């Protein structure tokens, strides 16, 4: 069993765990950030990613339900309100689900097509894996798995938005509000997740559980991209390109 770590050392250990788990960006992300996905591949990426964004309430709701601390539940509730649409209370953005639909429309996908799209089996399985992970984890670990997505959210969303603006300039700027919203909101969400880990994972067993949980969440996100990559991207790559991006 690993030694008990102090709060800051635990966060550093988890971040290093994630770096070791997947040292390089997924090939799909490499191609996206360098502008080498075709329009059709970008559309398939958007349609399949939508499955998690339209079902985010399933795991956010579990995290809220399991949390025993009223002050934290308020922060989790604020997070859920932002996901469901801060415009409900006078904010700028509608639901993040709707923002992704607008992004899809900017890619040339009809609204009814993305709303009725049946994602790849692996995409559906990945969501169920994460819902199960959150359901089965200690409440603080369930929240702490957000370190993988929300923790790096602002940087990841900024990089994706900037790549889309640079290489896919035909996409209307307003269609990129999903990324702008997450650049802003995920900074606060990531700080909350970090504080939960630092304050409520100060037992060796919880630190071990947290370490395994972030690896599982990272693997689930990798699986999502893998499904898209093997179905819609890799079959059309040259051997040279495969060697470059697969390592």
Task: Give a verbal description of the structure.
This protein is mostly helical and 247 residues long. The chain has one domain: Heme Oxygenase, Chain A, CATH 1.20.910. The protein is 74% helix and 0% strand. Helix 3 runs antiparallel to helix 6 (96-106) and helix 3 runs antiparallel to helix 13 (204-233).
Outline of the structure:
The chain is mostly helical and 247 residues long. Helices cover 74% and strands 0% of the residues. The chain starts with 6 loop residues before the first helix and ends with a helix.
Task: Give the H and E element order.
Answer: HHHHHHHHHHHHHH
Low-confidence stretches: none
Tally of structural domains: 1
Distance between the termini: 32 Å
Just name the CATH architecture: Up-down Bundle
CATH superfamily: Heme oxygenase-like
> How many β-strand runs?
0
Q: From the helix content, strand content and strand pairing, which structural class follows?
A: mainly alpha
Shape: globular
What's the level 1 CATH class?
A: Mainly Alpha
Helix count?
A: 14
Radius of gyration equals 18 Å
Strand content: under 5%
Summarize the amount of helix as a percent range.
Answer: over 70%
- The average pLDDT is 94
The main β sheet shows up as: none
